[in-house]
Design brief:
Blueprint: H1 5-12, H2 18-29, H3 31-34, H4 39-46, H5 50-59, H6 65-76, H7 93-114, H8 117-129, E1 132-136, H9 141-154, E2 159-162, H10 165-173, E3 179-184, H11 191-202, E4 206-211, H12 216-219, E5 223-226, H13 243-259
Helix pairs in contact: 1-2, 2-5, 8-13, 9-13, 10-11
Length: about 280
């Protein structure tokens, strides 16, 4: 995973002098304001001199403040791991529709190129054999967890989407052999998800993660279904960033249905009629 400029600022903050630390603190908390700010204004806000600002910028390899601001602005926009056409202010609805569909198709094509089918199969077998599955996620990935819960329950699996830190920690700490923790994390660097995985495995449960390969979460999981993440998502979350995670759910559901002998593995059983009353 690429280290963004904002991450570098945070990592090096402790090694700076007091004046530069004030600059680092403001840049890391208000980057969207800094990119539109003059050096004189930033100096005033941080109560430092202009030479301190220049020294701060050069610490990260930039010639001056303008160069630093340019790279800071670039680091605020998430970077997709595939051909991506950004939607911008002024785009009409035709462009919005076209770019959204094209970007989604490019994301799916990248998944097809990168994913390891054997890892999907291994994850499906572990989930099929589980006595119970806890599904963990945070932030926008919570929608993915709910999607997985709904589809797995339609297959007759015992599972629950566990949302919120207290509930997640309670279930992870009480995990037992035969159970599975299924974890969704775009970056694989979310501390809460890594700790959940460690706790679940300590109790004897197995961990299946849908996350970035070679991430902290991947290293504490039994099976990782690797999905290449977006870079630079500290401040903004791309709308399509979890699209491929939903596709992985469909792959798992279909593989589990085949293991279970379903004649229609890519179709979900209908809900009871009382739940789907139609007019």
């Amino acid at each position: 995973m690429t280290v963004s400029l904002l991450q570098r600022v945070l990592q090096e903050k402790a090694t700076m002098g007091a004046a530069e630390q004030r600059v680092a603190a403001y840049v890391s908390t208000s980057p969207g304001e800094v990119i539109h700010m003059s050096m004189a204004r930033l100096s005033q806000i941080c109560s430092v001199s202009d030479p301190t600002i220049m020294r701060f910028c050069r610490r990260f390899g930039f010639e001056g403040y303008q160069d630093f601001k340019l790279h800071l602005a670039q680091s605020l926009v998430p970077s997709a791991p595939f051909a991506y056409e950004q939607i911008v202010q002024g785009d009409g609805i035709d462009n919005i529709v076209r770019k959204t569909c094209r970007n989604s198709l490019n994301a799916i094509q990248r998944l097809l190129e990168d994913i390891v089918p054997q890892h999907v199969e291994e994850g499906a077998r572990i989930l099929h054999a589980a006595s119970w599955t806890g599904i963990y996620a945070t932030g926008i990935s919570e929608v993915t967890a709910l999607d997985a819960e709904h589809k797995f329950q339609r297959l007759g699996m015992r599972c629950q989407a566990l949302l919120g830190g207290k509930k997640q920690w309670m279930h992870a700490e009480s995990a037992r052999p035969g159970e599975v923790a299924l974890i969704f994390s775009q970056s694989g660097h979310t501390k809460q998800m890594v700790e959940v995985a460690i706790a679940a495995r300590a109790g004897g449960a197995r961990v299946v993660s849908v996350a970035a390969d070679d991430s902290p979460l991947a290293r504490v999981s039994d099976v990782v279904i690797a999905v290449l993440p977006y870079d630079r998502t500290e401040l903004m979350t791309p709308l399509a960033s979890r699209l491929n995670h939903h596709l992985v759910i469909n792959m798992l559901v279909t593989a589990i249905a085949i293991i279970g002998g379903s004649e229609f593995p890519d179709q979900l059983p209908a809900l009871d009629s009382w739940q789907t009353d139609k007019i």
